[in-house]
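In response to reviewer comment 3 from the previous cycle, which asked for concrete evidence that the modeling workflow produces usable outputs, we include below a single protein chain processed end to end. The sequence was submitted unchanged, and the resulting structure tokens are shown without manual editing.
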Amino acid sequence: MTETGHHRLRHTWSLHRALSVIGLSALIVLGLVGGGRLNVVGAAARLSKATTTVPHIMLIVEENRSYSDIIGSPYAPYINSLATTYVSATNWYAVQHTSEDDYVDLLSGSNQGIPVAKPYAASTLVDELHTAGIPWKSYMENLPSDCMKGTVANGLYDVFHNAFHYFTRYGTSTGHWCNTANLSTEGVVPYPGSSAFITALDAGNAPDFVTLTPNDCNEMHGDSKTGSTCLGVTQRQLISAGDSWLSANVGPVIQSSWFKQNGIIIITWDEGASPDKTGCCGGVAVGGHVPTIVITSTNQGRGQFTGTGDTYGILRAIEEAYGVTLLLNSANTVNGDLTGAFG
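The workflow returned the following structure tokens.
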């Protein structure tokens, strides 16, 4: 699609959102409970529908740490500063206790039957964004090339943390996400480092939706492969390394013009350190209690979001913010809705 075509579609999106506001504004109810703690009541979960500006949303997924491993930990000072400065979702859970399942859940509203029948032809969030003319990019640290297929045995890039490769449109062929005809407005590409990343975000053709995936040594996962730079690193060291990486890479994003234009950064974890189905979603979410931080230019000082939800509730909030169809399990209200944390 040409750049002109994208601008035309985004204008149509904005007009649709403006018309929606007229009928929805009366449905928005926001309750604030003392002590700076956030509580969403009734239709406040539709807050994102009251905007005519395409939001800039960044989703960052960390690995294998429970809420109690991170929140309050002396090894994660930067994350905890974000949790107190912005919004911490205190009752958020991973759907499953398997990385690839949770990443696919987050992209498509279902695990699509992993591990059988790959690649999947199912619709994903980014397919919906493409149809709506909303540019998107996924940045993978240490991914060797655009939409590269296969694994890399260096303990850095992990194909199981790249949900896109499970779908039929992952690749460089005509009509695929990384085809040269599409790559200016969408695709799965290597993370170029903080400086080049900020330059890309602040450029005139920056994507509206971004996912950012650190490598195994920077996302708190770790790796036991020979040659991995985090071979034998302790859990505390991994948490500290992940925290430092977020400080070095998220800190500049918060200062960017991209973020200041209706920006939202969601930092969550794919699963907890152990299974847990006691706190969420009818006992269906078994991936564990995980930290989830929401950073926006409007929610500084908002405190805690006490609503309960899971991986699908994050997808739902992103879909609502862009006005696209709710995919599969994200449409089920039992899975919650993170929209109320957007402020």
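The radius of gyration is 19 Å. We consider this sufficient to address the reviewer's concern, and the full set will be provided in the supplementary archive.
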